[in-house]
């Protein structure tokens, strides 16, 4: 199959790593995600990943109740670094070269985010995993994904979820929710469709980066989206 995109950014939530566990990292699940990434990397597609930290932060959330928002956000950023390291190690075991870059300086553990270096790694065929969000509190990892996608000139932002795409309502709560095939950025903002936060949608809209929303739990979906098959939903102008 011929890929439609040369360079992509894959947004993974921390919850995507949990599998059916209540929190933490499920080894079988992370190996499945790496297999999906490997499929497209071996097609010659340059792959960057932004990962969240909800799977780890969920375990400490009760203790964070009432905590200062900025402090809690920094804790969440550190959780994303842990997830990025786990993802990198799983890629190493699968024979996939990768690099982790962090928006927070933790140079004994991972290298700092440097845009030019990240692009060079991509051109060398390495998967680049961006950790620690934007490095700033009050910004989500969705915003980080949109920011990094624009900075590295990704041709599409892939938003991996546990449902089949973008719906008119949460399909887990509303059985009448309808799957939307193609939606404009403006419709997402006006109807407050909960795919990504408004800052992320606006950043992609202003720079013309399409957002593909699809079900990560269906094997082969990442490859199908990258090869141009109509899978899930697409948000574009």
Distance between the termini: 27 Å
User: What is the CA-based Rg, rounded?
Assistant: 17 Å
Question: What is the percentage of strand-forming residues?
Answer: 15-25%
Q: CATH topology, what is it called?
A: Carbamate kinase
Based on Cα principal axes, name the global outline.
globular
Report the average pLDDT across residues.
94
Record the strand order, biggest sheet.
4-3-5-2-1-6-10-11-9
What is the makeup of the main sheet? 9 strands, mixed
Summarize the structure.
This protein is of the alpha/beta class and 237 residues long.
Secondary structure elements and pairings:
Layout lengths: L6 E6 L14 H15 L4 E6 L2 H11 L4 H25 L4 E5 L8 E2 L2 H9 L3 E5 L9 H11 L4 E6 L4 E2 L11 E2 L1 E2 L1 H6 L7 H10 L3 E5 L5 H6 L6 E3 L2
Parallel strand pairs: 1-2, 1-6, 2-5, 3-4, 3-5, 6-10, 9-11
Antiparallel strand pairs: 7-8, 10-11
Helix pairs in contact: 1-3, 2-3, 5-7
Task: Please give a structural write-up.
This protein is an alpha/beta fold and 237 residues long. It has a single domain, classed as Acetylglutamate kinase-like (Carbamate kinase, 3-Layer(aba) Sandwich). Helix content is 39%, strand content 19%. It has helices spanning 27-41, 54-64, 69-93, 115-123, 141-151, 185-190, 198-207, 221-226; strands spanning 7-12, 46-51, 98-102, 111-112, 127-131, 156-161, 166-167, 179-180, 182-183, 211-215, 233-235. The strands form two sheets. Strands 4-3-5-2-1-6-10-11-9 form a nine-stranded mixed sheet, sandwiched between helices. A two-stranded antiparallel sheet has the order 7-8. α1 (27-41) crosses α3. The protein starts with 6 loop residues before the first strand and ends with a strand. The mean pLDDT is 94.
């Amino acid at each position: 199959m011929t890929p439609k995109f040369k360079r992509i950014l894959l947004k993974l939530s921390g919850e995507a790593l949990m599998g059916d566990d209540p929190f933490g990292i499920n080894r079988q699940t992370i190996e499945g995600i790496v297999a999906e990434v490997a499929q497209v990397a071996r097609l010659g597609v340059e792959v960057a990943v932004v990962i969240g930290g909800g799977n780890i932060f969920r375990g400490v959330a009760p203790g964070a109740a009432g905590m200062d928002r900025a402090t809690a956000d920094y804790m969440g950023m550190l959780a994303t670094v842990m997830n990025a390291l786990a993802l990198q190690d799983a890629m190493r075991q699968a024979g996939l070269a990768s690099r982790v870059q962090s928006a927070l300086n933790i140079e004994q553990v991972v290298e700092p985010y440097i845009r030019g270096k990240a692009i060079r790694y991509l051109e060398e065929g390495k998967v680049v995993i961006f950790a620690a969000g934007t490095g700033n509190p009050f910004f989500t990892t969705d915003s980080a994904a949109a920011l990094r996608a624009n900075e590295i000139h990704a041709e599409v932002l892939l938003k991996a979820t546990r449902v089949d795409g973008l719906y008119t309502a949460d399909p887990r709560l509303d059985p009448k929710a309808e799957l939307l095939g193609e939606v404009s950025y403006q419709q997402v903002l006006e109807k407050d469709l909960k795919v990504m936060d408004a800052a992320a949608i606006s950043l992609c809209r202003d720079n013309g980066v399409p957002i593909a929303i699809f079900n990560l739990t269906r094997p082969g979906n990442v490859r199908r989206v990258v090869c141009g098959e109509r899978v899930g939903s697409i948000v574009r102008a």
